[in-house]
Every structure is written in C-alpha cells, then in structure tokens.
Amino acid sequence: MSLIGKTALVTGGLGGIGRAICARFVKEGATVFAADLKETQPLPGANFIKLDVTSEHDCKEAMEVVRNLGGQLDILVNAAGIEIEKTIEETTLAEWNRVFAVNATGTFLVSKYALPLLRQSGSASIINFGSYDGFIADPGLAAYCASKGAVHALTRAMACDHGPEGIRVNAICPGYIDTPMLRGFFRDHGDIESLEAAVRDVHPIRRYGTPDDVANLVNWLASDEAKYASGQLWILDGGLTAQVQQMKL
Questions:
Q1: 147-167 per-position pLDDT tens digit
Q2: Catalytic sites, residue numbers
Q3: Centroid of chain to Cα 65
Q4: Residues linked to residue 49 through DSSP beta bridges, in sequence order
Q5: What pTM did the predictor assign?
Q6: CATH code matching the domain that covers 7-178+210-237, chosen among 1.10.287.1080, 3.30.450.40, 3.40.50.880, 3.40.50.720
Q7: Do 111 and 57 touch, CB atoms closer than 8 A?
C-alpha cells in the first residue's frame, strides 16, 4: 500500500501495459484515473476518463475531471502509444504525423496540462514511456523509433525544467512485452510458435516481459522510495540490449 493518499492518472490506461499499471496502483491504495479512447472493459477500482491524447481539448477536460473528482494529482503515467511497421519510404506523411501525435505530442500535451495539479502535490512523479527502440532500432519501425527517441529527450528536458517544482520525471523503455501489440506482431509475421520461441531465446533471461513486470517498475518510480530518481531512461528488456549482437527476428 505504498501509494495511499496519492492520485494517479494513466493514459492508455485500459491497454495491455496501462491496465496492469492501473491495477497495481489500485492495489497500492491510490485513487486511479484510467484514461483511454473508450471503456472497452471496466477496471475495478479505477475511474474511467475518455481521452484522446492528441486532442488539446480532451487533455484540458481530463485535468478538470481529475481536479473535481480527485482533488489532486500526484502521479502521471503517459502510457498511450501506437506503432506502424514500415520503413520511412513506406510511411506516408499522415502515418508519420499520427505516430508522433500519439507517442510524442500526446506525452507533451497531457504533461503540459497536468503540471498545475502536479505542482500542488509537492512530491509528484511523471513516468513517460519510451522504448528500447529509442536507443537501437528494429527493422521496419522507423516512425516508432523516432517518436520514442523524442520522448527520451523530452523526458530529460522535463526533469530539468520541473525538478525545482518538486516534480520528478522518468521514462521507462521496455523491450518485448506480452501485450496485444506484441501478439499482433506475431500474427503478422508467419509462424507464431517459432517466432515466439525466437523472441524468447534472444533474451539472456530467456523470456519476454509481462505487463506486471512493467507495472512493478512504474510503481517504484511513482512511490516516495524513488524520490531521488529523476531524468533517467530505465531500460526494462530482460538484458536484450546488453548483448554485443542482436539476433535478426
């Protein structure tokens, strides 16, 4: 119950990773707002907010809901994200702009309008979502890699700008996590069983991650135990990027 008395807002809160984060926050005693495009499946103990992170209007309205129902905001998790599996030559300008709108601009907008509430906390934490693809690149994910690199740089800038206001800012950079997005990748690339095995075996710990693995790190960064952690990019990939060479999947 490390988050008793704290209020949290999680974008992409009903997705694979976001749902696990919200569930963990509820378990830890926080007041939780799960923000997403639609309430596909209610999450026990969490309040749903309809939010398109690319809409400035929606972002402003979401903060008013948090202010009116929660009275405060101590934790912001920017977990909403999308990917397109294409090279730059295959990517249209509209697709490029859409990936950046959700992954980078969405992080900017939600954080921008959360700041007035977060300042009042005195001990606030923003947790953005980068990716190991912001450090190294998987083939055919050009726009996604670029957008996550932008989130990494934005995270450092936010940590510098708002640390004096009592707001810590970090980014989690996951590798392969067992989510609907990863399952979709498996389905689109042939033999699912052999591909799952290849992905598993390329990791030094011989498995890919789970949403709960991510939620564990998010929970720590959100808590006062991490009150000296800020401006960092936390790679969570089972040792994948520690290797000298990567297997081509």
A1: 999 999 999 999 999 999 999
A2: 144
A3: 21
A4: 35
A5: 0.94
A6: 3.40.50.720
A7: no
